[in-house]
Amino acid sequence: MESVIVFAGTTEGRILSEELAGYQVYVTACVATEYGETLLQRMPYLQVHKGRMSQKEMEDFLRAEPGSIVVDATHPYAVEASKNILEACKAVGTEYIRLIREASKVETEDAVLVGSVEEAIDYLEGTKGNILAATGSKELFKYTRLSDYKERVFARVLSTGEVALSCEKLGFCGKHLICMQGPFSEELNIAMLRQFDCKYLVTKETGKAGGFEEKIAAAQKAKAKVVLIGRPEEQKGYSYQEVKKLLIERLGLDGDAKRGVKKRIEVSEKIASESKKQDLASVTGQKDRQKKRVVTLAGIGMGTFDGMTIEVSKAVEDADVLIGAKRMLEAVCKCKKPTYVDYDAERIADFLAAHPEYSHPVILLSGDIGFYSGAKRLYDALARIGCEVHTLCGISSVVYFCAKLHLAWEDVCLKSAHGRMTNIIGAVTTHAKTFVILSTANSVEDLCSELQNYGLYHVQIHIGERLGYSEERITSGTPAEIKRGTYDGLCVALIENPGHFPGVMSCIDDGRFLRGKPPMTKSEIRCLSVAKLHLTRDSIVYDVGAGTGSVTVEMALQAVDGMVYAIERQEEACWKIGQNKREFKTPNIEIIKGHAPEALEDLPAPTHAFIGGSAGNLKAILNCLLQKNPMIRIVINTVTLETISEVTECLRALPLIEEEIISVSVAKANKLGKYHLMMGQNPIYIITCRGGKQ
């Protein structure tokens, strides 16, 4: 059988390489970078050639692979590379097939059309406003021609160290460098344009598979002008489906593989035929509706075939392709179905969009689809490509583990530390039972160390390893006892705390805090100020001028699933915040030593902020907060008339909505013999405001 060489510079090229290898065709996928290599699956019939090649090197490479068919699946804008591949094939006498990415049909009437990045720069030089550059890293150096590029340009490039380093050398760093792998959803494009207040989006016509339609739709909704670099004129070629059909015929696949391919071609042709009928019906006024493709999301339970429900097992048997992470697919390997290994919702949707021949796809998810599952992202991604979603639940790890422990689970607090930050200490402190999905092999030791560090020595921990498998193991003990063992990376924990405090601690007595020279907001003022913030469990809060951290702690106890950043410039105060953090078991506090607003630059965008001290930088601090979140809610405390004057000036000058300004005077009784003498504290001004003023 002939072999195939695919120059796989696009998503279509990588999918074609993997699909041919799945039918036991020897495929060599040529990619330019190490990153491109990581995007391809490891498969018995698929080998990868990494590195850019000149035309001469291509000729030598092809001569070493006589009888191969070459598929040029490079990017539409990679004109030079495509030309070299064609000339190398002519020189060696190798059959050449060009895979053309289908152009997008989205409307771009309002776009500024240019022929190159250079022309885009010429246009942008005479404009004002931030720019999202989505043209890749290779031509990023051309943007340095803009006189103010360091302030205006936000570059979106691939997430590799080599690319990031090259961009940094050009002057793109910090928030001006966005390292991510596309294609991107419409929602994410909108979020980026709005986050950086971009008035222009520079992009190429990358086609549907390259996320072009989502970029155009996002620009329209974010009111950003599109500067569109038109596609270069390229040689004739074939669509993905045409190339696939051509190769199947040319390679003469036989037996089961051939029958399976033939069946998929027939399905694909049937879908295409139905699509044409629908177009005709639209023209002639008929109202026939095209049936949506049904995609099944199936929870496979603990990970073994025997642990699946009968309903899920039947869906797996009836599927024509199975999709999921490697461990999910290993559980159903005996079914001998075509597979696609991936867990990213957008990539799965793109795969299904590129493979209409799969009419009964099943996406496998661990445990139950509603318990810390990827299903919630898949709903939106599959809706984007017009699929109907059917769901089949499975047995979740918490149900299984609690049954093994003979424990009811209706009062269990559910947490996951698998690929996410979570406040386990806060959950254990306030709940009798806390269930946690763990991730890496050393996470059990980390969990035990954290429990000990916050004084929770007495709790009982149950560790479940490889639940549902033959090598399942359950271990119970205190943090000190559990810490001495070794554990598998695939495990969960259930923590029992009979001494939990079920309520939310607030208005903490001043005497409970570790104090010193740094100032501390008194209990009554602290309680009222935090209440004015209207915090939620997952709030992201800045405490600017945190002092001893009394307000920080109160906020962290309320935003138990969020994070509080305590910004403080004094070394002694930072140390005391750390001590109070440990005393009140609030690991969701991060101490930032430095001056505001400079210390705020690299922090995540806040939902709320409390300003207890500004060191004369109030306007700059408020400006920084509004840039990070224009809708932020802020409470400011001050004792001086000068600061209240500065606050009122900021309320007039900045896009802030004033909710209220109050003055609070508190007097507390001191016993003097048999009498109580009221001792007054300094009056405090509490200012509540929020962003959003037009």
Verbal overview:
The chain has 694 residues and is of the alpha/beta class. The protein has five domains: 114 residues, NAD(P)-binding Rossmann-like Domain (Rossmann fold); 118 residues, Rossmann fold; 102 residues, Cobalt-precorrin-4 Transmethylase, domain 1, CATH 3.40.1010.10; 99 residues, 2-Layer Sandwich (Methyltransferase, Cobalt-precorrin-4 Transmethylase, Domain 2); 182 residues, Rossmann fold, CATH 3.40.50. It is built from 24 helices and 30 strands. The longest helix has 30 residues. The termini are far apart.
Amino- and carboxy-terminal Cα gap = 68 Å
Q: CATH fold name of the largest domain, please?
A: Rossmann fold
- CATH structural architecture of the largest domain: 3-Layer(aba) Sandwich
Per DSSP E runs of 2 or more residues, the count of β-strands stands at 30
The overall average pLDDT, rounded, is 86
Number of helices: 24
Overall number of domains: 5
CATH class of the largest domain: Alpha Beta
Short précis:
The chain has 694 residues and is α/β, with parallel strands linked by helices. Helix content is 36%, strand content 22%. Mean pLDDT is 86; it is low at 254-290.
Furnish the topology, listing elements before pairings.
Blueprint: E1 4-7, H1 11-22, E2 27-31, H2 34-38, E3 46-50, H3 55-63, E4 69-72, H4 79-92, E5 95-98, E6 112-114, H5 117-125, E7 130-134, H6 149-152, E8 153-157, H7 161-169, E9 177-179, H8 186-195, E10 198-204, H9 212-221, E11 225-229, H10 240-251, H11 255-284, E12 294-299, H12 310-318, E13 321-324, H13 326-330, E14 339-341, H14 345-354, E15 361-365, H15 375-384, E16 388-392, H16 397-405, E17 412-416, H17 424-430, E18 433-437, H18 443-453, E19 460-465, E20 473-477, H19 479-483, E21 491-496, H20 523-533, E22 540-544, H21 550-558, E23 563-568, H22 571-583, E24 589-593, E25 608-611, H23 618-628, E26 633-638, H24 641-653, E27 656-664, E28 667-672, E29 675-680, E30 684-691
Parallel strand pairs: 1-2, 1-4, 2-3, 4-5, 6-11, 7-8, 7-10, 8-9, 10-11, 12-15, 12-16, 13-14, 13-15, 17-18, 22-23, 22-25, 23-24, 25-26
Antiparallel strand pairs: 18-21, 19-20, 19-21, 26-30, 27-30, 28-29
Helix pairs in contact: 3-4, 8-9, 14-15
